[in-house]
Specification:
There is one protein chain. With 60 residues, the chain is an alpha+beta fold. The protein is built from 2 helices and 4 strands. Strands 1-2-3-4 form a 4-stranded antiparallel beta sheet, with helices on one face. The protein is globular. The two termini are 20 Å apart. The relative contact order is 0.15.
Length: 60
Amino acid sequence: MAGVTVYVAEEVWGMTDPEVKISDTVRFDAATQSFFYKTDANELNVQALKDNLFGKACSK
């Protein structure tokens, strides 16, 4: 999905900025083609979860 998002971001969100704020806690970075989840103190690359134990547990 992230690879396609770069091409459809203008149609979906009406923006061509390199970073798209999707919500107060989620943004998409076109340069890295990554979604980031922001908390008060941290920002988590959502794609990085797919290969760790948390990601494997959630996919079952």
